[in-house]
Amino acid sequence: MHEPMRLNSHPFTASSIESKLNNTVVETKRLSITIYDTLIT
Fold first, then answer.
1. Contact, 14 vs 7, CB < 8 A?
2. What confidence tens digit (pLDDT) does each residue in 1-41 have?
3. Distance of CA 39 to the CA centre of its chain
4. What is the model's pLDDT at position 35?
5. In 1-41, at which residue ranges do the beta strands (DSSP E only) sit?
6. Were 7 and a residue from 3, 14, 20, 35 both cysteine, which residue would form a disulfide, CB within 3.0 to 4.6 Å?
7. Contact 20, 27 (CB under 8 A)
8. What is the pLDDT of residue 18?
């Protein structure tokens, strides 16, 4: 857990970490959908 003060003082770092996490989630969803489709077909 990071202190809110630290995140507020480093907005660029916080938002880049957040967007990296969002990209990872999106890629993971795509991958699992692909695997799911492969298994169903």
1. yes
2. 555 555 555 556 768 888 899 999 999 999 999 999 999 87
3. 25
4. 92
5. none
6. 14
7. no
8. 86
Residue 8 confidence (pLDDT):
55
Rounded Cα distance between 22 and 15, Å, is 10
Distance of CA 26 to CAs 33, 38, 39, Å?
Answer: 11, 18, 20
Reported as type and span, the H/E element at residue 37 is helix 11-40
Check: CB of residue 26 under 8 Å from CB of residue 32: no
| Residue 22 token pair | 């969002």
Structure tokens at 36: 């799911």
What integer pLDDT is reported at residue 31 of this predicted model? 95
